[in-house]
Amino acid sequence: MNAPTPRVLAIVLAALVFAPSTGSAERAFKSAAKDNFKWHCAQCHGEKGNGKGPNATADLPVEPRDLTSKTDIPRFTDDQVTKTLTHGGPANELSSIMPPWGNTLSKKEIEDLLAFVRTLGGPFNPDLGPPEKTKRKTDAALSDR
Length: 145
Ligand code: HEC
Description:
By secondary structure, the chain is mainly alpha-helical. The chain has a single domain, classed as Orthogonal Bundle (Cytochrome Bc1 Complex, Chain D, domain 2). 44% of the residues lie in helices and 0% in strands. It starts with 5 loop residues before the first helix and ends with a helix. The model has no long low-confidence stretch (mean pLDDT 87).
């Protein structure tokens, strides 16, 4: 076999120099979850997660929940959020307008998104009681524009 050319060595060295250090691993996970949120969730839930994304128009019969709500999101257990994220709203008797992500995102990515959602609305709080039922806009409200 030929000895590696200087060019190949330079590429290998560059890869080593620019490889992220293990110290930044946690930061990398956080930014991956943020990127996934911006890409897959923000159009409905808004970049800040407040439920005011560009797709949350009057045409959408069910409002994307405000993920920053400290009185709504903490009603959902981690299991429930994971179920919704994986299988969509109907897995928790919620609207199918909340899509399933189990075929798009890995288990780890969904876990990281759950952690990200918890940074917005806070941890599960059983004192608040079960989640409120889906509020649907009536057909009348939709045609009344
Ligand atoms: C097409 C619009 C849409 C997109 C895209 C979307 N959602 Fe939702 N989401 C909804 C709607 C609508 C609801 C409210 C469903 C209901 O109340 O019946 C909801 C509810 C939720 C809830 C609260 C319900 C629960 O069981 O936890 C969470 C958390 C959530 N979404 C997170 C996400 C995340 C994270 C993403 C991206 C991976 C995402 N959503 C993408 C529309 C969307």
